[in-house]
Design a protein that fits this description.
mainly alpha; 3 helices; flat; transmembrane helix; 64% helix; 99 residues
């Protein structure tokens, strides 16, 4: 108990000093100027909108084409996978042994 009190008395002025210094530093910051126009207002983001929109449209067209044209291949693949022989399930020993 004595050590805690001694440490508190020793370091509390230091802590108070660092806290007040931070408050002073935040008050001395020069305010930033506001921009005269909104960001992207002059059409600079138009390129990004066109590129992202084109990529989104191309992805949608690809998905639609793949889903609509590959349905026969998909059903053949599923029937082939379901037709494979499945080994009978055996529980593992506990604790698991390293192979």
């Amino acid at each position: 108990m004595y050590l805690c009190r001694a440490a508190l008395q020793r370091f509390s002025p230091l802590a108070r000093h660092s806290i007040t210094q931070r408050a002073i530093l935040y008050r001395d910051v020069v305010p930033q100027r506001l921009m005269s126009s909104v960001p992207g207002g002059s059409g600079e983001n138009l390129i990004y909108v066109v590129l992202c929109g084109g990529a989104f449209a191309a992805a949608g067209a690809y998905v639609y084409r793949t889903v609509s044209t590959d349905s026969a291949r998909f059903t053949d693949r599923v029937t082939e996978i379901e037709g494979r022989p499945k080994p009978e399930w055996k529980p593992k020993t506990w604790p698991a042994k390293k192979d």
